[in-house]
Write a structure and sequence with these properties.
Among the domains are: about 90 residues, Flavocytochrome B2, Chain A, domain 1; about 80 residues. It is of the alpha/beta class and about 625 residues long. The longest helix has 18 residues. Helix content is about 35%, strand content about 15%. Strand 7 and strand 8 form a beta hairpin. The N and C termini lie far apart (about 85 Å). Helix 2 runs parallel beside helix 22 and helix 3 packs across helix 22. The chain has 24 helices and 21 strands.
Length: about 625
Amino acid sequence: MSTHIFIYIIIYIINVKRGMSKDVAVFGAGWAGLTVAFELAKRGYKVTVYEKDLTVGGMAKSKRTPNGVPTEHSWRGYAPFYYNLFSLLKEIPVESMVESFSYPMESMVESFSYPLSQVQEHNTASSLWTYYNGNVYDITKWVPLHPGGQIILKAGGQDLQKTLEKYGLSWHLSNQRVLSNLEKYRIGKLADDTTEHLSSPSLFDTALSPNRLQFRLLSNTQHVGINALDYPFLIYNYLKCAVTDKRKSDYYKVRFLDVITDKVSRGTYNYLVHFISGPGFGFDYNTISFAHHSSFVERTFEKGFGSWKVASGPTSEAIFQPMVHHLEKLGVKFEMGTELISIASDQNKTITQCVVRKDLVTSTVIADHYCICVNPNTLVDVFATSDPIYTQFQGLKTINNQLGFVITFNTNIQLPDNSAYVLIDSPLNITFYPQGQYWTNTTNKNLGNSVKSIWSGTCVQLGNAVSKTKDALKKEILEQVFQSTGLNSDLRKLNPNINVKASVIDVIIYDEWSSDIKAKNPKWVNNISNENFRPHAKTIYSNMTLGGAHCKTSTTVWSMEGAVESGKLAAQEILRTFSDNRKVNVHTFQSILPIRLLQNIDNILYDKGLPHVIDLSILLLVVWATLQVSNR
């Protein structure tokens, strides 16, 4: 056993002893809840996660249709400033148990390597590995399907080609059908025994596509982009918001649309409203505040991880399945299909129990601490109407319906590499990307029966839909997608002999939408009325914390990064309540030093009832310039 593994085990044992007497119940298995579970479990606490759905991931999870087509609530990008999310992924090892995942990702397989000595250990019918052409295959499940099963058993731990040559069957490896079947069982590469066998890769290495994401903003009739003449106006307004601290509450009450409508050119308006405010970050541009919009723009200057990324496969398979596997190894228990119904407390502001429901049967959950990471739109009904948190969540309650869909094709449809599309003319504010082109493995098995290509998209402004049913909405989506002349131009260039529209198999809407287009889990986003109601992790109850992207974070905007940050903050608060002085690594966003200095100056001006520091600076500059001219 290597020294670093021994040290890790010792540290883990110490952590377990420090936290083993404490039970923590986490409600909600989205990004926030899973983050809390990870941060506490790795420190030795006993954690149980309760989730009302049957799969983890919350709003970020993916699902497959009965035909195997992957779908998402909304296609999602991972921004360069997702420091907390990426650091979380880097801490979670992806272990060599690819067969435990329902749809193994090619990028995950490529990350594993096995020394020959390890392969040779798997030489029985219950665990049969072989190697061929530098790759390792776990053919345990293939043996009963192969007519020469007994011969295949001879290949256990051996070179497959040499084994087949011995029995005069080497011609099998020139048969494309055999090779295609064999490929399904590939689990990694053969490593050189003379080199050190590296530890398993992390989720950060496997979960994200290596292809960077580039948006193509398309309009049939209008320019889309920042007009140089608008820069003075934009810099003035964004800078005022950036250097604001105590005045920030005023900016949270101002709609972004009211700031720029009729103040900038049409191209700038299209870029900031129909791209940045909508598809760019999933806001509702009708209600997003200028402060939230400005915060997102400020975050885009953070270049921590280079470019926007997407997952290397369906989110649940590329990220959440291996994540849950690791959490279970840390001792985390999952109670799926279990919904939080109510929370009971005593006069000492202590939670005494939570009531949950599973399969129509109610039961109680009693723990040392309770962490609630549930969608705020449903959480409000959990608290008693007399509870102050009930009033707070009533104000926080916000429904913003954004609908995820996929378009499937019966032939391979190509679009430009690294592309994602925003259809500016679309009333639904449609954005999509050719999902399969970002996945390393795009075999039919991964995309669904008979599906050769797949586009994953979102209707950001579903409120503009004319349709009243899912079937009618499918037609509306197709019509708006294929009315784009820019998209059709790209399709003709790269698919000259294909009638792309005729190749469409179906438009599939995420299954959490009813036939009359009602959302089972309505989305929460920032807007002009809910900022003041966003809660902190710490609550009035000594043994309850809150988590979720709707909570107060330095990220400011509702996002996966905000959810992970809130989970880390909640975990830190839980450690504090247990008098555990260990620190959770939380990346906190803060402005650069010059901006912070201006914020401090503006706070002084604000307290004295004086104008904004930017306005006052401009005024003083004008006075100075006037005096200079008059003195000539």
